[in-house]
Specification:
Helix content is about 0%, strand content about 60%. The protein is built from no helices and six strands. The chain is an all-beta fold and about 60 residues long.
Length: about 60
């Protein structure tokens, strides 16, 4: 998906996470919801970023 933020264009790379339902419930602003537990947490990919002209890897 092509996105723009303050004139800079970038491509979104959404990640999907496999989840399983749990027995726990939560309430947020008066609405009840069922909590989910992730099967495995995805590893973070190394990215080359730039801040005020300085390039770094995160």
């Amino acid at each position: 998906m092509q996105l723009t933020y303050r004139g800079a264009r970038y491509t979104s790379q959404p990640q999907s996470i496999q989840t399983a339902a749990s027995q726990e419930e939560g309430v947020f602003l008066g609405t009840r919801f069922q909590l989910s537990i992730p099967h495995a947490t995805p590893a973070h990919r190394s990215q080359q970023l730039k801040y005020r002209g300085v390039v770094y890897t995160a």
